[in-house]
Amino acid sequence: MAKFTLYLVRHGQTYYNVFNKLQGWSNSPLTQQGIDDAVATGKRLKDIKFKAAYCSDLTRAQKTISLLFDQNETFNSITPIVSPFFREEFYGYFEGLNMDEVWYQAGAPHGAKTFAEIIDQYDMNVAKDFLKQADPFHTAENAEEYWHRLQQGLDLITSNPNIEDGDSVLLVSHGNTLLSLVDRFSQPGQFDLRTRPANGSITKLAVDGDQLTVTDYNK
């Protein structure tokens, strides 16, 4: 397995982001700001020669990566691998509902009234478990279900035989997924996970075989 840099980009702003709604596997279109986010990020990355690119199969991520590709000539020689493995966390019954109200329902029975308080008192995995518990249909992904899916995506990347030492690889995904990766692969307290990654932001991981280390967050 190779040693390479994985660039994680959050999709551009959507209307659900503006309305403070949980998006999960649901979709809303990119706003004009979201389109501008993606174009600006593409320009920031235009001089990087990516060996491979991956993307969530949700529409907002695919639209974002297409805008990134428009800004980078090196993408002419590669085709992004689109997979549901890279989707956002599935919020089940809470899809499309107000984010603050949902996290209150999930966390308040455990003494944490906001997402930030859940992260402060517990962690990202516990937040997922709380949400599934609060879901009246229990269809939201808990931590075990979420990581089983996402790990298949990470394995898809690290097992790519075309990626060599020193290469750069792109992944376009989602806010809570980026937070989850940073939480799992950074040192405790290294980054403030109460700050969500901005739309179009860049987070970088150093990949060494199956070992991942976060080197930059929300740039």
From TrEMBL:
Binding positions (substrate): 10-17, 60, 88-91, 175-176
GO CC aspect terms: cytosol
InterPro entries: His_Pase_superF_clade-1 (IPR013078), His_PPase_superfam (IPR029033), Phosphoglycerate_Mutase (IPR051695)
One Pfam family recorded for the sequence: His_Phos_1
Record keywords, A-Z: Hydrolase
SUPFAM superfamilies xrefs: Phosphoglycerate mutase-like
Protein name: Phosphoglycerate mutase family protein
Source organism of this protein record: Fructilactobacillus cliffordii
